[in-house]
Amino acid sequence: MADGLNPTDAVNMRQLSDAKRQLENKMKSNHDQAIGTATMAMAMANLPQAQRPGDKTFAVAGGTAHGKASFAVGLSASSTSGKWQLRGSVSSSSNGDVGAGFGAGYTWR
User: Fold this and answer.
1) Could you give the number of structural domains in the chain?
2) Are residues 86 and 76 in contact, defined by beta-carbon separation less than 8 angstroms?
3) DSSP labels for 57-102?
4) What three-state secondary structure class fits 45?
5) What is the pLDDT of residues 28-74, one digit of tens each?
6) Which residue range is the domain that position 62 belongs to?
7) 3-state DSSP call for residue 13?
8) pTM for this model (two decimals)
9) Residue 23's CATH number
10) Where's the Trimeric autotransporter adhesin YadA-like stalk domain (predicted)?
């Protein structure tokens, strides 16, 4: 049976198998990227941060899941009054993806 070409043509087994393989490959790629991104978030979430007023902290952390791994580096600081906190980090996964985050906070009573 020849390949179907028109919208109303039937597909042959080779066409169906090719489409299935392409879909499976895309799903695996998406899964691997999602796991890599999740490990980046795990690494960034586990970065220790400055605790006391005036502290500055440089930190490194890692994350792993389902055979994927990531590392993160970050810097955090607390103002001398302890009212302001700043934090920034960069993470990279074994997939080659890179992500970054930044946060600032103000504390009052």
Assistant:
1) 1
2) yes
3) EEEEEEEEETTEEEEEEEEEEE-TTSSEEEEEEEEEETTS-EEEEE
4) helix
5) 999 999 999 999 999 999 999 999 999 999 999 999 999 999 999 99
6) 13-106
7) helix
8) 0.80
9) 3.30.1300.30
10) 2-34
